[in-house]
Amino acid sequence: MKIDRNAPCPCGSGKKYKKCCLDKMAGATGSESMQDILAEVEKQMKSGKISSLEEAQAVLDAFMREKNAAPLAEFHGLSPEQMTRFLNFPFDSPSFVQFGEDGASALAAPVLILFSLLAEAIGDKGLTPTATGNLPQRFCREAALALWGEEKYAKNTRFGSIRSEMDFFDMHCLRLVAGLAGLVRKYKGKFILTAQCKKKIAAHGVGAVYPDLFRAYAQKFNWGYRDRYQEIPFFQQAFLFTLFLLQKYGDISRPQSFYEDIFLQAFPDLIRDVQETSYQTVEETIRNAYFYRTLENFAGFFGLAELVKTTGKDFPERYEVKKLPLLDQFVSFTI
């Protein structure tokens, strides 16, 4: 009994067999490998012990259920079934993961600091945008100073001042995410807070909008917008796996390569989907884009991880990563 390369993978991932378990099964050893199971089913069909395709399928289904429920070393304790839920249903898998209903402990997260500054500037009267539709220059400068402090502000603007919202890209992205989350919109030529946003803040404080920002950033915002790397949407799809790794291993500071290595080992086929450039190998592109998009611009931006630079003025910059208390407070895994 042979599975066609283009047939749906029997593991239930929804992918074609050639893009899912084919390589793993080709290298599998031991009595419980897929190839051994297929050979055994075929043998029993020839001997008459299995008399129909329905019975053969039942044997395969039982094997796949057992296989899908077994933890894998490359997934660091997650089973294929759990990984499938992580990748495709991150907010609809309460048996595996639950998210906090508010962000009362997230007030120090950069994303919430920026939103608090924006909400305060908007107030009840709204905030008039520039002719290009962006946030006012003066507000962006004051917000950057409030977030960075004087020393970091001077460092970040040493090659050019903040002349527009686009020069303070964290605030620019926050405004876009707030819009996607239904918290901020334009009305009669001004930025305003939505009624839903006002209601939440009035009842529970500004931390109440943290889950909305988190979900909008994870599901609606294009992570690739924040850098110049090629589109690799799988990083965003796998955000929950990275948070799982941070919660499991993030008690101590670890080099960024620790998480990059795990990600590459868990999803080796990702290399096939990324193009090599004249200045970077495929692996270098994956590592760099993964770090910036997932660890720095997601986990760091949302206050879930702390990134400490370890290379001084050397290039490329390297960081150590450690989880922050907010991660355990906001995300609960039951694995």
General description of the model:
With 335 residues, the protein is mainly alpha-helical. The protein contains 14 helices and 7 strands. The chain has helices spanning 22-26, 34-47, 53-69, 80-88, 110-122, 137-156, 169-180, 195-204, 210-219, 234-237, 239-249, 256-266, 282-300, 325-330, and strands at residues 97-99, 184-187, 190-193, 254-255, 305-309, 319-323, 331-333. Strand 2 (184-187) and strand 3 form a beta hairpin. It is elongated and about 80 Å long. It starts with 21 loop residues before the first helix and ends with a strand.
Strand segment tally? 7
Distance between the termini: 35 Å
Calculate Rg over CA atoms. Answer: 24 Å
Helical region count? 14
Main sheet summary: 3 strands, antiparallel
| SSE pattern, N- to C-terminal | HHHHEHHHEEHHHHEHHEEHE
The strands making up the biggest β-sheet line up spatially as 4-6-5
Helix content: 40-55%
* Helix/sheet category: mainly alpha
Mean pLDDT over the full residue set: 88
Low-pLDDT segments: 24-32
Strand proportion, as a percent range, falls in 5-15%
Main attributes?
335 residues, mainly alpha, three-stranded antiparallel sheet, two-stranded antiparallel sheet, 14 helices, 7 strands, 48% helix
Can you give me a brief rundown of this structure?
By secondary structure, this protein is mainly α. Helices cover 48% and strands 8% of the residues. The two termini are 35 Å apart.
